């Protein structure tokens, strides 16, 4: 696809008709590929706040379904304190090829007990909700049993509504809305949901 990239681990598009591809670099940059050319300046550079590497770093990216109107996109990264951070950023009003690093709005900050199995998936579903893949915290054999516990967000796929609430709201049909587990949880018992997608049909 392109050369001159540093640890590229993901690729996405903004759904804005521009034809641009946005490439994640694990150490904390999002690069733009436009008409086969890699732009010199990154779309976003948060390498100063990302803890890398191994299975940590800037791990996931999804653009809001209404990105052409609101300029919002969402990332999953490991910070320098080894927390998983789910955050929203916004594109610059002056330059569509640059995002505002200072626009970060953190939705979820979750401590990671080990440096592996941080997950990373960030995907908008056809229902407009944001789905997040979080690993079980790492080590070997899930020693804390996080994957099977509905009292932690680790080892899960989460489903949240980023268009409601102060930071986000809980979709009313999430399985643990009423009782028995954390309301963000959509699916549990996962090891390390690194990537996922929705069937276009």
Give the topology.
Blueprint: E1 8-12, E2 21-25, E3 29-34, E4 37-38, E5 44-45, E6 58-63, H1 67-70, E7 72-78, E8 83-91, E9 99-111, E10 122-124, E11 130-134, E12 156-160, E13 185-188
Antiparallel strand pairs: 1-2, 2-3, 3-4, 3-5, 6-7, 7-8, 8-9, 10-11, 11-12, 12-13
Query: What's the helical proportion of residues?
Result: under 10%
| Residue share in β-strands | 35-45%
Quickly give the structural class. mainly beta
Query: Low-confidence parts lasting 5 or more residues at pLDDT below 50?
Result: none
Q: Average pLDDT across residues?
A: 96
Q: Total number of β-strand segments? A: 13
Judging from the principal axes of the Cα atoms, what is the shape?
Answer: globular
What Rg is obtained from the alpha carbons, in whole angstroms? 17 Å
Distance between the termini: 26 Å
What would a concise description of this structure say?
The chain is mainly beta.
Explain the overall architecture:
By secondary structure, this protein is mostly beta strands. The protein is built from one helix and 13 strands. The chain has one helix at residues 67-70, and strands spanning 8-12, 21-25, 29-34, 37-38, 44-45, 58-63, 72-78, 83-91, 99-111, 122-124, 130-134, 156-160, 185-188. Strands 1, 2, 3, 4 and 5 form a five-stranded antiparallel β-sheet that branches. The chain has a four-stranded antiparallel β-sheet with strand order 6-7-8-9, with no helix packed on it. Strands 10-11-12-13 form a four-stranded antiparallel β-sheet, with no helix packed on it. Strand 3 (29-34) and strand 4 form a beta hairpin.
